[in-house]
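Holo model, 2-aminohexanedioic acid. Inputs:
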Amino acid sequence: PTSRALPGPEEVADLARSAAQACGADLPAHQGDREGRSPVNGAVISRLAWTSPEDVDAAVEAARAAYLGWRTVPAPARGAVVKRWAQLLVEHQVDLATLVTLEAGKVTSEALGEVQEMIDICDLAVGLSRQLFGRTIASERPGHRLMETWHPLGVVGVISAFNFPVAVWSWNTALALVCGDPVVWKPSERTPLCALAAHGLLQRALEEGGYDASVAQVLLGGPEVGEALVAHPGVALVSATGSTRMGRAVGPVVAARFGRSLLELGGNNAAVVAPSADLGLATRGIVFSAAGTAGQRCTTMRRAIVHSSVVDELVERVAAAYRNLPVGDPSADGTLVGPLLDRRSFDAFTAALGAAVEAGGEVVVGGGRELTEAAPDAYYVRPAVVRMPAQAEVVHTETFAPILYVLSYETLEEAVALNNAVPQGLSSSIFTRDQAEAELFCSVVGSDCGIVNVNIGTSGAEIGGAFGGEKETGGGRESGSDAWRAYMRRATTTVNYSGELPLAQGVTFEV
Ligand code: UN1
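Output:
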């Protein structure tokens, strides 16, 4: 399954150009000398100009000016723009997914799924545009009404990562737009065509609605552009997705200017496999979450904490599945594992495996590079399963590559302790048929993560729930549930219609 021919350099470059143009990406306007390479075969597929940090100010100022108009557009009318955007995403789902495959290396089904996630969040946001509710609260004073109103917040800066080059931006943007906020987006420098294409579709929806196009802006560029956006006092909310290292830099800068930040950082997600688990189901859940997306999701399963009575059998099943995983051209039918992003990702994969072995780990399957001759400038690997004697330092670290560390446990308390022992707190799951065990894992004394699943893997969350995690994952929540509140400000209002002036807390103050 690994000997497939990969597409040639011209082929991917042409495909990328035409898909981006079909979405309305203005490539001539962005032409420049920054080369973008496809992880599929290492070929150059874009030559674009990067924004300089000095241009960030103009973009934020334009967004601030657009905000003054956008905030007064009724929320359901803002929702109508998002509805049109969703229609365009449906029309161009294949074009955008093609770009996701070419720039992020995702297999076709996952690339289409990423665009589907955009369509889904648009649907949610359209409904939300008529439901930005505040509460009325029982006042302690007679003849008074206490209520809250949610108002637009201001400019939202979105920083997104290569691995979800369009969906994570859309979670933020669909909500921000219905909430009345303009968005300035700094996408990953690795996925500029995805960004221009996705942005092109949104621009079209805004223009068709007759709205100021500055409501949505995109700034191609490197980390300096992100830094300028984060530091800008005109950005009310910075929503940043990426590594914990990046979040450590962003958080304090935003806090120092009393801005708001929404951080979605590293994960180190585990599945607990209990003695009663359906091992067939657990195997499928684990393989999708651990090897899918070539281990490059923040929700990727990096640890399996397996009861000692089933660990040998489970490892055997997972290893058998890994040996047969079709690794290769992500656009080819049947491929399940595409490339790593680049050489650096491959080096990190190799180094982590080395550190694991040094700490007493045994590599059960995988770990080698594949398709080296067919694609010397691309980095395909066989996903690895490593049995670890203990949760060594390397297991505490998020390596953005497909390595699954397997640990074993005796008591559920021990399994929960292992699950919670890492610094990250994004996603977790338990495979069990014992209801009490499942409930305990989901309870206050169970998993400490933002996402706690039962009998499914750690990745592939739906947009309806709030997405994010605790500890070094950053604490932010995006996407569904009441995550929209992060994009608005709350005004609490007390209205006195009594004709008297009773004071709260029974205070008397006669003048
Ligand atoms: C990410 O990797 O940054 O739950 C987001 C999931 C996807 C989102 C992942 N819906 O795996």
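The chain has a mean pLDDT of 97. DSSP finds 15 helices and 23 strands in the chain.
Archived with the compound record.
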